[in-house]
């Protein structure tokens, strides 16, 4: 069962790109990015709860810097030319957020 859930999670971004319009692709990717963001927030809270205060403060600073990076990086995609940039920006948000959630989950397991 876990493997099928993982397979679905991996296939999900590609399923969004199979939509028939740019608007549908962006909507799908945006929904997926919101789900990834919820996962990210849960992983961040779990990581913060497991570390000493000094380390939690450093983690908070790192998370704030990461949010600024994600915003600036994905905005760069959005400022390109053509409607594909909307898809690229949404894909950026999904991919970047998912990778950070993975990282925070691993961090939490180590501590």
UniProtKB/TrEMBL annotation:
Signal peptide: none annotated. Pfam families: LprI. Residues 18-104 form the Lysozyme inhibitor LprI-like N-terminal domain. Gene3D superfamilies: 1.20.1270.180. InterPro entries: LprI-like_N. This is Lysozyme inhibitor LprI-like N-terminal domain-containing protein. It comes from Sphingomonas panacis. The lineage of its organism: Bacteria, Pseudomonadati, Pseudomonadota, Alphaproteobacteria, Sphingomonadales.
